[in-house]
Amino acid sequence: MNSNPDVGVLGAVGDLVEDVVVLLHESLHVASDTPSTVTRRRGGSAANVIEAARHAGAGARFIGQVGDDAVGSWLVRTLEDLGAEVAVHVGGRTGTVVVLVDHTGERSMLPDRAACTELDRPEPSWLDGLHTLHVPFYSLIGEPLATTVRTLAGWAHERGIAVSVDASSVSVLEAVGVETSLDMMAALAPQVVLANELEAATLGAGLEPRRLGADVVVVKHGALPAELRLADGTSVAVPAIAVPGVRDTTGAGDGFAAGFLVEWAASHDAVAAARRGHEVAAAAVRRASGL
User: Fold this and answer.
1) pLDDT of 117-148, one tens digit each?
2) CA distance from start to end of the chain
Protein backbone atom coordinates (compact mmCIF):
# COMPACT_ATOMS: atom_id res chain seq x y z
CA MET A 1 0.00 0.00 0.00
CA ASN A 2 1.16 3.52 -0.73
CA SER A 3 1.76 5.14 2.69
CA ASN A 4 3.33 8.29 1.25
CA PRO A 5 2.34 11.11 3.65
CA ASP A 6 1.86 13.41 0.65
CA VAL A 7 -1.21 11.34 -0.27
CA GLY A 8 -2.85 12.28 3.02
CA VAL A 9 -4.80 10.41 5.66
CA LEU A 10 -7.83 8.13 5.38
CA GLY A 11 -10.64 9.30 7.65
CA ALA A 12 -13.68 7.28 8.70
CA VAL A 13 -16.65 8.67 10.62
CA GLY A 14 -19.00 6.51 12.64
CA ASP A 15 -19.00 3.77 15.23
CA LEU A 16 -16.38 2.82 17.80
CA VAL A 17 -17.85 0.15 20.05
CA GLU A 18 -17.00 -2.86 22.15
CA ASP A 19 -17.55 -6.09 20.24
CA VAL A 20 -18.56 -9.06 22.38
CA VAL A 21 -17.69 -11.91 20.03
CA VAL A 22 -19.38 -15.25 20.57
CA LEU A 23 -17.64 -17.94 18.51
CA LEU A 24 -19.94 -20.95 18.29
CA HIS A 25 -18.19 -24.32 18.24
CA GLU A 26 -21.14 -26.02 16.54
CA SER A 27 -24.57 -25.16 15.18
CA LEU A 28 -26.69 -23.03 17.51
CA HIS A 29 -28.97 -25.08 19.77
CA VAL A 30 -32.01 -22.82 20.05
CA ALA A 31 -33.42 -22.56 23.60
CA SER A 32 -30.53 -24.66 24.92
CA ASP A 33 -26.74 -24.60 25.40
CA THR A 34 -24.17 -24.25 22.61
CA PRO A 35 -20.43 -24.53 23.39
CA SER A 36 -18.69 -21.28 22.52
CA THR A 37 -15.74 -19.00 23.15
CA VAL A 38 -16.52 -15.42 24.17
CA THR A 39 -14.02 -12.59 23.67
CA ARG A 40 -14.18 -8.80 23.84
CA ARG A 41 -12.48 -6.47 21.39
CA ARG A 42 -12.74 -3.11 19.70
CA GLY A 43 -15.33 -2.92 16.92
CA GLY A 44 -17.48 -0.66 14.78
CA SER A 45 -17.30 -0.42 11.01
CA ALA A 46 -15.57 2.97 10.88
CA ALA A 47 -13.07 1.92 13.56
CA ASN A 48 -12.39 -1.36 11.73
CA VAL A 49 -11.49 0.57 8.57
CA ILE A 50 -9.04 2.69 10.58
CA GLU A 51 -7.51 -0.37 12.24
CA ALA A 52 -7.01 -2.12 8.90
CA ALA A 53 -5.44 0.98 7.37
CA ARG A 54 -2.99 1.28 10.25
CA HIS A 55 -2.03 -2.40 10.09
CA ALA A 56 -1.31 -1.82 6.40
CA GLY A 57 0.94 1.15 7.18
CA ALA A 58 -1.34 3.97 6.06
CA GLY A 59 -2.22 7.16 7.90
CA ALA A 60 -5.73 7.00 9.34
CA ARG A 61 -8.09 9.05 11.53
CA PHE A 62 -11.22 7.91 13.36
CA ILE A 63 -14.01 10.46 13.86
CA GLY A 64 -16.85 9.68 16.25
CA GLN A 65 -18.21 9.60 19.79
CA VAL A 66 -17.70 7.21 22.69
CA GLY A 67 -19.26 7.08 26.13
CA ASP A 68 -17.89 8.80 29.18
CA ASP A 69 -16.87 5.51 30.74
CA ALA A 70 -13.95 3.13 31.15
CA VAL A 71 -14.85 1.14 28.05
CA GLY A 72 -14.89 4.27 25.88
CA SER A 73 -11.48 5.33 27.20
CA TRP A 74 -10.08 1.86 26.51
CA LEU A 75 -11.45 1.84 22.95
CA VAL A 76 -9.88 5.21 22.14
CA ARG A 77 -6.58 4.13 23.65
CA THR A 78 -6.46 0.96 21.56
CA LEU A 79 -6.79 3.00 18.36
CA GLU A 80 -4.14 5.45 19.51
CA ASP A 81 -1.86 2.53 20.33
CA LEU A 82 -2.10 1.53 16.67
CA GLY A 83 -0.86 4.98 15.69
CA ALA A 84 -4.27 6.16 14.50
CA GLU A 85 -5.34 9.77 14.88
CA VAL A 86 -8.53 10.03 16.94
CA ALA A 87 -11.04 12.89 16.84
CA VAL A 88 -13.75 12.02 19.34
CA HIS A 89 -16.42 13.58 21.47
CA VAL A 90 -17.02 11.92 24.83
CA GLY A 91 -20.46 11.59 26.40
CA GLY A 92 -23.23 9.14 27.14
CA ARG A 93 -22.78 5.37 27.15
CA THR A 94 -20.35 3.47 24.96
CA GLY A 95 -21.96 1.20 22.38
CA THR A 96 -21.74 -2.59 22.27
CA VAL A 97 -22.23 -5.10 19.47
CA VAL A 98 -22.73 -8.79 20.17
CA VAL A 99 -21.21 -10.67 17.23
CA LEU A 100 -22.36 -14.26 16.79
CA VAL A 101 -19.87 -16.20 14.65
CA ASP A 102 -21.21 -19.58 13.60
CA HIS A 103 -19.15 -22.70 12.99
CA THR A 104 -18.78 -21.77 9.29
CA GLY A 105 -17.35 -18.33 10.09
CA GLU A 106 -20.49 -16.38 9.16
CA ARG A 107 -21.38 -13.40 11.36
CA SER A 108 -24.66 -12.13 12.78
CA MET A 109 -24.61 -8.88 14.75
CA LEU A 110 -26.76 -7.52 17.57
CA PRO A 111 -25.92 -3.80 17.86
CA ASP A 112 -26.54 -1.31 20.66
CA ARG A 113 -24.90 1.80 19.22
CA ALA A 114 -25.58 4.05 22.22
CA ALA A 115 -23.24 7.11 22.13
CA CYS A 116 -22.20 6.50 18.51
CA THR A 117 -25.31 8.21 17.15
CA GLU A 118 -24.91 11.23 19.44
CA LEU A 119 -22.00 12.84 17.57
CA ASP A 120 -22.73 16.53 16.99
CA ARG A 121 -20.89 19.87 16.78
CA PRO A 122 -18.63 18.85 13.87
CA GLU A 123 -15.28 20.58 13.64
CA PRO A 124 -13.60 21.48 10.31
CA SER A 125 -10.26 20.42 11.76
CA TRP A 126 -11.45 16.80 11.74
CA LEU A 127 -10.89 16.89 7.97
CA ASP A 128 -7.40 18.42 8.00
CA GLY A 129 -5.00 16.36 5.89
CA LEU A 130 -7.55 13.78 4.74
CA HIS A 131 -7.53 12.34 1.22
CA THR A 132 -10.85 10.54 1.77
CA LEU A 133 -13.75 10.72 4.22
CA HIS A 134 -15.25 7.23 4.48
CA VAL A 135 -18.88 6.90 5.55
CA PRO A 136 -20.41 3.54 6.49
CA PHE A 137 -24.16 3.70 5.78
CA TYR A 138 -24.66 3.05 9.50
CA SER A 139 -23.40 6.61 10.01
CA LEU A 140 -26.38 7.98 8.08
CA ILE A 141 -28.77 6.36 10.55
CA GLY A 142 -29.53 8.07 13.85
CA GLU A 143 -29.40 11.72 14.82
CA PRO A 144 -27.52 13.93 15.35
CA LEU A 145 -24.81 11.70 13.81
CA ALA A 146 -26.42 11.65 10.35
CA THR A 147 -26.61 15.44 10.17
CA THR A 148 -23.00 15.70 11.37
CA VAL A 149 -21.90 13.29 8.62
CA ARG A 150 -23.72 15.22 5.91
CA THR A 151 -22.05 18.42 7.13
CA LEU A 152 -18.61 16.80 7.08
CA ALA A 153 -19.22 15.41 3.57
CA GLY A 154 -20.17 18.88 2.34
CA TRP A 155 -17.03 20.37 3.84
CA ALA A 156 -14.97 17.54 2.36
CA HIS A 157 -16.14 18.34 -1.17
CA GLU A 158 -15.39 22.04 -0.65
CA ARG A 159 -11.82 21.08 0.26
CA GLY A 160 -11.27 18.57 -2.55
CA ILE A 161 -11.45 15.57 -0.22
CA ALA A 162 -13.01 12.44 -1.71
CA VAL A 163 -16.05 10.84 -0.06
CA SER A 164 -16.75 7.11 -0.03
CA VAL A 165 -19.78 5.17 1.22
CA ASP A 166 -20.17 1.55 2.30
CA ALA A 167 -23.68 0.04 2.14
CA SER A 168 -23.03 -1.63 5.53
CA SER A 169 -26.13 -3.74 6.26
CA VAL A 170 -29.00 -5.43 4.41
CA SER A 171 -31.34 -5.07 7.37
CA VAL A 172 -30.63 -1.33 7.65
CA LEU A 173 -31.07 -0.79 3.90
CA GLU A 174 -34.37 -2.67 3.96
CA ALA A 175 -35.61 -0.72 6.97
CA VAL A 176 -34.79 2.59 5.26
CA GLY A 177 -36.06 1.47 1.83
CA VAL A 178 -34.09 0.88 -1.35
CA GLU A 179 -34.76 4.15 -3.17
CA THR A 180 -34.35 6.22 -0.03
CA SER A 181 -31.06 4.45 0.75
CA LEU A 182 -29.77 5.12 -2.76
CA ASP A 183 -30.84 8.76 -2.51
CA MET A 184 -29.03 9.11 0.84
CA MET A 185 -25.83 7.72 -0.68
CA ALA A 186 -26.09 9.86 -3.82
CA ALA A 187 -26.63 12.99 -1.70
CA LEU A 188 -23.07 12.60 -0.39
CA ALA A 189 -21.70 12.70 -3.99
CA PRO A 190 -19.33 9.78 -3.32
CA GLN A 191 -16.42 8.90 -5.60
CA VAL A 192 -16.49 5.30 -4.37
CA VAL A 193 -19.41 3.15 -3.19
CA LEU A 194 -18.82 -0.31 -1.70
CA ALA A 195 -21.30 -3.12 -1.02
CA ASN A 196 -21.19 -6.86 -0.45
CA GLU A 197 -23.17 -9.23 -2.63
CA LEU A 198 -26.22 -9.29 -0.32
CA GLU A 199 -26.33 -5.51 -0.07
CA ALA A 200 -25.92 -5.26 -3.83
CA ALA A 201 -28.82 -7.66 -4.38
CA THR A 202 -30.97 -5.60 -2.00
CA LEU A 203 -30.16 -2.32 -3.75
CA GLY A 204 -30.68 -3.84 -7.18
CA ALA A 205 -30.29 -1.95 -10.44
CA GLY A 206 -29.79 1.38 -8.67
CA LEU A 207 -26.36 0.36 -7.41
CA GLU A 208 -24.58 1.87 -10.41
CA PRO A 209 -22.14 4.77 -10.77
CA ARG A 210 -24.57 6.83 -12.85
CA ARG A 211 -27.36 6.58 -10.27
CA LEU A 212 -25.01 7.42 -7.39
CA GLY A 213 -22.76 9.95 -9.12
CA ALA A 214 -19.75 7.78 -8.33
CA ASP A 215 -16.57 6.97 -10.23
CA VAL A 216 -16.74 3.31 -9.21
CA VAL A 217 -19.09 0.95 -7.41
CA VAL A 218 -17.39 -2.06 -5.84
CA VAL A 219 -19.38 -5.22 -5.13
CA LYS A 220 -17.50 -7.55 -2.78
CA HIS A 221 -18.18 -11.29 -3.01
CA GLY A 222 -16.21 -12.61 -0.05
CA ALA A 223 -13.70 -15.21 -1.26
CA LEU A 224 -14.87 -14.76 -4.87
CA PRO A 225 -13.76 -11.97 -7.23
CA ALA A 226 -14.88 -8.43 -6.49
CA GLU A 227 -16.85 -6.69 -9.24
CA LEU A 228 -15.90 -3.16 -10.23
CA ARG A 229 -18.71 -1.23 -11.89
CA LEU A 230 -17.09 1.73 -13.63
CA ALA A 231 -18.52 5.09 -14.64
CA ASP A 232 -18.16 4.26 -18.35
CA GLY A 233 -20.62 1.37 -17.96
CA THR A 234 -18.06 -1.42 -18.05
CA SER A 235 -17.29 -3.86 -15.25
CA VAL A 236 -14.15 -5.72 -14.17
CA ALA A 237 -13.74 -8.75 -11.89
CA VAL A 238 -10.73 -8.79 -9.57
CA PRO A 239 -9.93 -12.14 -7.88
CA ALA A 240 -9.79 -12.37 -4.10
CA ILE A 241 -7.04 -13.99 -2.01
CA ALA A 242 -7.77 -17.41 -0.53
CA VAL A 243 -7.21 -17.71 3.22
CA PRO A 244 -7.30 -21.36 4.38
CA GLY A 245 -8.61 -22.13 7.86
CA VAL A 246 -10.84 -19.07 8.26
CA ARG A 247 -12.88 -19.12 11.47
CA ASP A 248 -14.00 -15.50 11.68
CA THR A 249 -14.61 -13.07 8.80
CA THR A 250 -15.13 -10.07 11.09
CA GLY A 251 -13.52 -6.98 9.58
CA ALA A 252 -12.96 -8.43 6.12
CA GLY A 253 -15.23 -5.96 4.33
CA ASP A 254 -13.86 -3.01 6.27
CA GLY A 255 -10.32 -4.22 5.57
CA PHE A 256 -11.11 -4.31 1.87
CA ALA A 257 -12.46 -0.77 2.07
CA ALA A 258 -9.30 0.47 3.80
CA GLY A 259 -6.99 -1.09 1.22
CA PHE A 260 -9.10 0.03 -1.72
CA LEU A 261 -9.46 3.64 -0.58
CA VAL A 262 -5.80 4.26 0.24
CA GLU A 263 -4.64 2.81 -3.10
CA TRP A 264 -7.42 4.67 -4.93
CA ALA A 265 -6.23 7.95 -3.40
CA ALA A 266 -2.69 7.21 -4.56
CA SER A 267 -3.35 5.94 -8.08
CA HIS A 268 -7.05 6.31 -9.04
CA ASP A 269 -6.63 2.83 -10.54
CA ALA A 270 -9.71 0.80 -9.55
CA VAL A 271 -8.14 -2.58 -10.39
CA ALA A 272 -5.00 -1.86 -8.38
CA ALA A 273 -7.19 -0.58 -5.55
CA ALA A 274 -9.27 -3.77 -5.55
CA ARG A 275 -6.15 -5.93 -5.48
CA ARG A 276 -4.85 -4.00 -2.48
CA GLY A 277 -8.28 -4.20 -0.90
CA HIS A 278 -8.18 -7.99 -1.15
CA GLU A 279 -4.71 -8.05 0.42
CA VAL A 280 -5.79 -5.96 3.40
CA ALA A 281 -9.03 -7.95 3.77
CA ALA A 282 -7.06 -11.20 3.83
CA ALA A 283 -4.81 -9.79 6.54
CA ALA A 284 -7.85 -8.75 8.60
CA VAL A 285 -9.33 -12.24 8.32
CA ARG A 286 -6.06 -13.83 9.39
CA ARG A 287 -5.93 -11.59 12.47
CA ALA A 288 -9.56 -12.29 13.38
CA SER A 289 -9.08 -16.03 12.92
CA GLY A 290 -5.78 -16.15 14.80
CA LEU A 291 -3.89 -17.44 11.74
Assistant:
1) 999 999 999 999 999 999 999 999 999 999 99
2) 21
